[in-house]
Amino acid sequence: MAEKIDHGRRRLLTAATVGTGAIGVVFAAVPFLASWSPSARARALGAPVELDASKLEPGQMVVVAWRGQPIYVVRRTKDVIAHLGDHNELLADPNSDNSVQPDYIKATGAARARNPEYWVGLGVCTHLGCAPTSAPVRRGEFQVAGVDLGKDWPGGFYCACHGSKYDASGRVFKNVPAPKNLTIPPYALGKDLRIVVGVDDASQNA
Q1: What is the pTM of this model?
Q2: What does the angle CA 74 – CA 75 – CA 80 come to, to the nearest 5 degrees?
Q3: Where are the alpha helices (DSSP H) in 35-63?
């Protein structure tokens, strides 16, 4: 008789333990399953990215990520802006006829920017997708990554992977591997110099 009672208690304790464990597994699974959902960072990869460009110094460049790709934001000096059209004969596509950019950017000509002082472009070489480095204007010969860009170098970007060169508006030079100018993403620029990359608002101007 005592042995039957012991078996009954064992079955009861076993059932209770299994039930409690199952409840615990359910509560433990909630944060675990939640971790499978896209994180805020992952969701942000496709969302617009905002930047306060007023904090940039002349000649300074910052890089922000949008859709997992680098976006270059450059505050160009007055000297660079004044000479953007001086080297068109050296460029493969000076008017950006075969480049990827919003129509409202193409309308800005050599500046390729809503505001000539602030250039926004995709930091991905149009050859094989490397990241060009900033190669600023210097008097005399200027070298970057051990390569002499020459005394007439107007400033811009240089891709050390295969030698492609772009000017300060991301326009590609002739006789380099890259076939097109650097891509300009859709973006808005407010009067407070806040840049929002990923917003295709052609009506918003600085």
Answers
A1: 0.72
A2: 100
A3: 40-44
DSSP state letters, 139-206: SS--EETTEE--TT---EEEETTTTEEEETT-PBBTTSS--SPPP---EEE-TT-EEEET---TT---
Query: Which tens digit of pLDDT belongs to each residue from 87-106?
Result: 999 999 999 999 999 999 99
- Domain encompassing residue 92: 43-197
Q: What residues have CB less than 8 Å from 80, skipping those under 6 apart? A: 137, 154, 155, 168
The three-state secondary structure class of 86 is coil
Task: Specify whether 22 is located in the same domain as 59.
Answer: no
Residues 32, 49, single domain; the answer is: no
- The answer to whether residues 90 and 49 belong to one domain is yes
